[in-house]
Design goal:
The complex is a heterodimer of chains A (142) and B (99). Chain A contains three helices and five strands. Chain A has 142 residues and is of the alpha+beta class. Chain A has one domain: Heat Shock Protein 90, CATH 3.30.565. Chain A has a five-stranded antiparallel β-sheet, with helices on one face. Chain B has a single domain, classed as STAS domain (Transcription Regulator spoIIAA, 2-Layer Sandwich). Helix content of chain B is 39%, strand content 34%. Chain B has a four-stranded mixed β-sheet with strand order 1-2-3-4. The longest helix of chain B has 14 residues. Chain B is globular. Chain B starts with a strand and ends with a helix. The chains are: A alpha+beta (142), B alpha/beta (99). At the A-B interface, helix 2 and helix 3 of A face helix 2 and helix 3 of B.
Chain lengths: 142, 99
């Protein structure tokens, strides 16, 4: 498992991208899979960046792990933890996908994308920390 | 990395977006799209070389589509498979005027 501790600010995103894409590349992930995982990482990180410590700032730890699985798959587990306000983003109301152009509200898309693209997403508040973990099995990897 | 350029074809403004739109460059994306579409009655955004867009970029497209309304005053073309997948997941494939 590898871990990166960064300020939960937009300017840290490039460093986070470098960390995540580097780890995925080392495990021979395809560019398409890397973009997909990176997208989900961006959405969760920006959520933390906007809400966890507002109006103050704080740190976030992001870890990535590749637990062994059978067959030709690669499992990617990514976990975010912060000491901000207890906040479960999974309880956010989902966007209204049937709303008209005029009615459609701008927001709530990030978590919706993550829930759709990752296999499992879990939230826990433990030891004063928000901990969000997401997992994805990349099939036909090898 | 992102690049945006504009061409005029008669009364239509063609805006080509390439690369990646994420939270690090979304302000530039929004400002440039707004500047390039300013005063234009008919706009086509070509996403043929866009291969990454996060929710923050989607919001910019949605706001622009809201500004132009339904119909073909604003169209989006050449969306690649990966970006189209995100449009579908978020319901944007029904909100944006895709051609």
């Amino acid at each position: 498992m590898k871990e990166l501790c960064i300020n939960a600010e937009t300017y840290s995103l490039s460093e986070l991208f470098t960390f995540i894409t580097g780890e995925l590349s080392e495990h021979d992930c395809t560019p398409r899979d890397i973009r997909l995982i990176r997208l989900c990482v961006e959405e969760i990180f920006m959520n933390i960046s906007c809400y966890a410590y507002a109006p103050d700032t704080g740190e976030t730890s992001v870890s990535i792990d590749f637990p062994p699985v059978k067959g030709d798959s690669l499992e990617v587990d990514i976990s975010f933890s912060d000491r901000g306000k207890p906040f479960n983003p999974l309880k956010n109301p989902p966007p209204d996908l049937d709303a008209s152009l005029e009615e459609r509200e701008i927001g709530g898309l990030g978590i919706h994308i993550v829930l759709n693209k990752m296999d499992t997403v879990t939230y826990d508040y433990r030891d004063g920390k928000n901990i969000l973990t997401m997992k994805k099995e990349l099939r036909g990897h090898r | 990395m992102m690049e945006i350029r504009k061409e005029k074809n008669g009364d239509t403004a063609l805006i080509f977006v390439s690369g990646e739109v994420d939270s690090t460059n979304v302000n530039e994306f929004e400002e440039t799209l707004n500047a390039f579409s300013e005063g234009e009655d008919k706009v086509i955004i070509d996403l043929g070389d866009l291969y990454y867009i996060s929710s923050t970029g989607l919001r910019v497209l949605l706001m622009l589509q809201k500004r132009y309304g339904r119909g073909d005053a604003l169209s989006i073309r050449n969306t690649n498979e990966e970006v189209m997948d995100i449009f579908k997941v978020t319901g944007f494939s029904k909100l944006l005027h895709l051609v």
